[in-house]
Amino acid sequence: MDDLVVNNDFDWKTTKTLDVNIQLPADVNVLPLSITSKDGKRVFFTGYPEDKSNHLSTRITVPAYEQQLKLIFAPQAKMSDETVDITGNKLSYNVNNNLKNMMMPCDLGGLVTYSQGGWHAPAHGANAGTLRDNYFANVFPNGLVIGDPGHFTIKFTTAQAVASFLPAGGNSQVLTQHFTDPSNANQVGSWAGQIVAAMMNVAFDDAGYLGNNTNKLKDLVFLSGPFSGMSVSNFLDVANTAIGGGGLGGFSINEIAYAAEQINNNFENGDLNYFTCTANSGGNGTGPTEVHYSGTLAYEDLWPWKGDYDFNDMVIAYNFAIYKNVQEQIRHITATFTLQAFGASFYNGFGFSLPQISPDAILSVSGYHLKPGSIIHLDANGLEANQTNATVIVFDDAFDLMQHPGIGTGVNTDPSAPFVTPDTLVVEMSFMDNGVPAPGGPVTFNQLDIGNFNPFIIVNQERGVEVHLPGYPPTSLANSNLIGSGQDSGNPGLGRYYKTVDNLPWAINIPEVFNYPVEKQDITGAYYHFADWAQSDGLLYPDWFLDKPGYRNHLLIYQNSQ
Fold it and tell me: In 3D, which of 199, 287, 203 has the Cα closest to residue 239?
């Protein structure tokens, strides 16, 4: 590394951030639109225009080696996928050049649904109780099951079992065991009753026993709220997974319970206008969209002095699952961090900041790991206190997560030492509750700019000593006197941070799984084209980290790093 000749303005990024401008037709349903890698295997964006217009303008971050991306349209658009060239830092396309489909009218007359009370009522005339008793066995020949088969479920074997269970009350909770024909909902609460009633409405409608409209209830789409743009069928998948213990999918229990109640009440006495047809929804029934951003962070921890450039003093794989509504506003983020290795004797911590996000724009953060007597101080919402930008401390001491194997320096960097199972933390960040944003106001996907989040390590329990990616500024709690000291050539006035006088970094961010070097092995020896990449301003071998023939020396790379 010390022999490299690197231009002063090289940013060491293995990714590039693109300004996306997609012109959409004004009167045709082609949304949501997905932007993927050319092979379609990696999704960089799925969503809508922020202002419900016909112009999608956003930012995405992709691997620097990508030269073309694919646009994938909703099935209703009847449009083929389009491969679009990346021009500089822009991705532009006019969908009107490939237009085939038109919107259709949405007539919901004749649709019928019943509330919990309706499905509970004794059979009388042609009421819901009569339908329940006469046709339950036809509609549910194997019984009605709610929940997640991979975790826990409630099974109803008879019409009378459903009638006895409804209407359900009590505090809503996730299932922790299986039930068959329970007489009440005390163990799971009122949301169980709403989900059961919604399943009854959808199944009886699908079987032809409810109403007389050709539009199926399961295909209708929520017009507003947290599930705006999502079909009833897809919502019930979310609801059943959630109540069964498979995860809330970024929603709250209250949001799920209320949405199920909307299904049940909407057509009981007229049309409450909670739903529309898929073709007119501005979506394809997938509703609020989920986008993932992932990669690996690798650090040196001797800043402001140079290290050995094996980039294994801290190795962390990350994945951000970002849940949005159809206005492109962030509802929730599930951030998964896996501490893979640390070739350090220091007791280092790890966190990240969101440079454009105010702390009061986030309702709550959970899932971090802080030891008793931690040097970290938190505000009530779980963010680090006294920070200008929203800052999450994921953990404060790597040694508190992964036990040292007894020999070697650090963990999982010395091939002669026993392998230690990596530790994973799942951080949940809530931006909205029941569709209502935090006091700081809604945050859009464009504003979040997750591809430029600012991750850092805290060195050896000294809160003021932070190590960031090259060019990224320290947080409000960093010791500013250290910038420009030692071998660091930082200059806040010039926006220069975490680079040596020779422009060498202390950290790198790889948009893939990174197979890091063994302890004390300079990265230039492990990866044959790293030097070519760095000395060419990133023009040569932008994919230097991939496992291609002639790209790496496997003997110098830790073999359990995947």
Answer: 199
